[in-house]
Amino acid sequence: MLWNRNFILVNLGNFLMYNAFYMLLPILPLYLANQLQASESVIGTILSLYTIAALITRPIAGFWLDKVARKPLMMCFYMFYISMCASYTLAASLGLFFIIRFVHGIAFGSATVGINTMAVDIIPEERRGEGLGIYTSSTSLAMATGPVISLFMHENGIPFDTIFIAVFCVGLSGFLCAANIKPRKEIERSTRQFSVKNLLLNAGLPEAAVMVLLTFGYGIITVYLSIYAKEEVGLTQGVGYYFTIFSAGLVAARLSSAMILRSGRFILVFALGIISLIIGFFIVAFIHNPVAFYSSAICMGIGYGLISPTAQTMIINLGKDTERGAANATYLTFFDLGVGAGVFFGGIIAQYSNYSTAYAVGFAFTIIGLIYLLTFIRKHFKTHRLR
Prior knowledge:
single chain, mainly alpha, 13 helices, globular
């Protein structure tokens, strides 16, 4: 049975964790620019620290989640993450913000690997693709609501510190949901020794690598969208609705693809998702008007809604049951590697050119990703999959 108490709680815990994350995303660039007078390149550098920290942490967190009792460790990671949400109220200088952002990235990287691995434990193996499609929809719903809430608060004059406290409260609610999950007791533990080669799932590296190409533009969208909309599209209000439309596409794609994934047609779903991204990035890179801006959101949402659960399920199916933590860490690490590159280089590209040029780079990467999927990943996955 898929829809049980644990599955509902893990979805709520994930939704509220990511809701806190997405509430912060559009606000932090504004806080850095308005309160701390940071330039575009400095904003990109500081915000990319979050991803760099998560990249360092996730493989280590995945290893230990496979080795020890999973839920207590996951709850420690979750509490660490939400406690850092309120710490932005202390960020009165660029140096202090730098430190807080890096530590928060460590916490986020650990917490997301933890709750993703718990979700894989809870979902029946025979319904993994379908279950992960539904589970990741909770992340999409967070993307739909988080930015809208925080941008609405900001546009109505609510102070940044109050928004940061609200983010903490949202995260705390998710922690309470996760605390009530009752994990299965028969989960087998890994006997692998701690080493660099055991931190990631080597069998899933080719499938994970394509995510770097596909999420480069995602990093630019999540961090710089409000600035791009104002400077290059001419929108000063209602930018948060982009994320609502984006998330509607995500949820629709993930739910509609669930049954296809259950039948094992991974490459088909993956390819359709990349094609949708290609269309979306073409629009934001080369067409600058409000109608095109919001139209691109649905293409982006459908694209990421198809590729995310597909890539995650494929990587998990390339590993053993005792490697679930490593498999999730591998997927999330490469996802974040692309996002971090987009955040970092997107700010630099925008400073020397504009955000349209940055999106054009994302457009080119998605085309390369489609070629890589069809020429290499298709054969590799068919040859090495365990289920």
